[in-house]
Write a structure and sequence with these properties.
Order of helices and strands: EHEEEEHHEEEHHHEEHH
Largest sheet: 8 strands, mixed
Structural class: alpha+beta
Organism: Collimonas pratensis
Keywords: Endonuclease, Hydrolase, Nuclease
Protein name: HNH endonuclease family protein
Radius of gyration: 20 Å
Number of domains: 2
Number of helices: 8
Pfam families: HNH (PF01844), SRA_ScoMcrA (PF26348)
GO molecular function: endonuclease activity
Distance between the termini: 33 Å
Helix content: 25-40%
């Protein structure tokens, strides 16, 4: 994407002219692109809500709709289902100059809940508040030693795959605290499946894991394929279990981008084959 954290961007020139999407409102969903642009501003207080970080480090983001109860249509549905749909959330905050926004980073919807608040006309209605966690926080969690992720030995791989994809669903209202717990559990479910899928063989170079970890398991590292960072979405078709050497080469090697694209094609093809 090329957006830099805390840098200022023109919504029209830097975002919509390049990527498309709705130029009005807080949620913009460009067609045929894996991105959703979120815009937050103090103007929301006029409609009975305030966006911002809570004590758990989650960014509370209020959905769209100024009159009547908010429903999971259009932008609201897109935010709730962005992981399942393979869309990344990019958050921008307004500045004193209305056309200029500050990039706050990429986020993942950890959960949501309904709250009561006034609409534009002052009438009480249901609001949708999304609980967004920075992708960097999930990336840090993903870097835990694989030995800390429990890979069940008594569960079939197909069942683990079903659990991983089921974990991506995000259709139950929860409190922010539960949302935060669920997002890490979701990450662990996907990672456990990906590590089990590899069966001790690097999914990039095809070689056996270079050593056993402290639990006697083959040591492989979970890698988000969609980006050359590890801040991607926890989706089985966009993650791979690879050896440390391949992992370092993808991130820092001269041919890392090519190697990563090859890996993406292999994993995507494999996951699609399981559907049929």
């Amino acid at each position: 994407m090329g957006f830099e954290l805390e840098k200022l961007y023109s919504r029209r020139k830097d975002i919509h002219e390049k990527f498309g999407g709705q130029q009005q409102g807080g949620i913009s969903t460009p067609a045929n692109l894996p991105y959703i642009f979120l815009f937050t501003s103090e103007a929301g207080e006029q409609h009975g809500y305030h966006d911002g970080y809570d004590e758990n480090g989650l960014f509370i983001y209020t959905g769209e709709g100024q009159v009547g109860p908010m429903k999971f249509l259009r932008g609201n549905r897109a935010v709730r289902d962005h992981v399942k749909d393979g869309k990344e959330l990019l958050l921008f905050s307004s500045t004193k100059k209305s056309t200029i926004n500050r990039f706050k980073g990429t986020f993942v919807c950890a959960g949501w809940r309904h709250r009561i608040g006034p609409d534009r006309n002052g009438n009480p209605r249901e609001l949708i508040q999304f609980h967004l966690t920075p992708s960097s926080a999930l990336a840090a969690h993903l870097q835990d030693e694989p030995s800390e992720i429990v890979v069940p030995e008594n569960i079939a791989l197909d069942e683990m795959r079903k659990r991983a994809y089921a974990a991506i669903e995000n259709k139950v209202s929860t409190t922010p605290v539960i949302s935060q717990k669920n997002i890490y559990k979701r990450s662990e479910e996907v990672k456990a499946y990906v590590l089990a899928r590899a069966q001790g063989i690097c999914e990039s170079c095809g070689k056996a894991a270079p050593f056993l970890n402290k639990d006697g398991k083959s040591y492989l590292e979970a890698h988000h394929i969609r980006q050359l960072s590890d801040d991607g979405l926890d989706i089985p078709s966009w993650m791979a279990a690879i050896c440390p050497n391949c992992h370092r080469e993808i991130h820092h090697g001269q041919d890392g981008a090519t190697k990563n694209q090859t890996l993406l094609a292999q994993i995507s093809s494999f996951e699609k084959s399981l559907v049929y």
